[in-house]
Amino acid sequence: MLRSYEAVAGAAGRADRGQAFFTRRHGGEWSCSSCHGQVPSATGRHAVTGKPINALAPAFNPKAFTDPRRTEKWFKRNCNDVVQRECTDAEKADVLAWLITIR
C-alpha cells in the first residue's frame, strides 16, 4: 500500500510528516490519535461510540493495510472526519511510512 501511494504522490512517504499529521488536529475536533492513540500499537477506542479499534501499526496488527479496498474505505471515512476532506496520496504515504516504523 505504501509503495502505491508513493507512486501516485511522486515522492517517498516521510515518517516525520506522517506522525505530525496523525497526532495533529486539522481544524476539527479530532485527530487520528483521538481514536487510535498517540502511538497506535494497542487497541484504540472510537471517540464517540467507544467501540474498540484494532491496533493500526502493522507490527501489532499484521492484517493492517493488507486489503487495498478496506484501506481506502477507512482512509476516506477517517480523513473526512479528521480533515473534512479526503487525504492526498502523499498524506497517506506519510502516515503509512510512520506506522511501519512503530515496533
How do the helices and strands line up, and which of them pair or pack?
Layout: H1 2-9, H2 15-23, H3 33-36, E1 44-45, E2 52-53, H4 68-83, H5 89-99
Antiparallel strand pairs: 1-2
Helix pairs in contact: 1-5, 2-5
Can you offer a commentary on this structure?
This is DUF1924 domain-containing protein. It comes from Ideonella lacteola. InterPro entries: Cyt_c-like_dom (IPR009056), Cyt_c-like_dom_sf (IPR036909), DUF1924_SHP (IPR015170). The protein is mostly helical. The chain has one domain: Cytochrome c-like domain (Cytochrome Bc1 Complex, Chain D, domain 2, Orthogonal Bundle), CATH 1.10.760. Strand 1 and strand 2 form a beta hairpin. Helix 2 crosses helix 5.
Summarize this, please?
Residues 13-103 form the Cytochrome c domain. Pfam families: DUF1924. This protein has 103 residues and is mainly alpha-helical.
Name the descriptors.
single chain; 103 residues; mainly alpha; Cytochrome Bc1 Complex, Chain D, domain 2; two-stranded antiparallel sheet; 47% helix; 4% strand; metal-binding
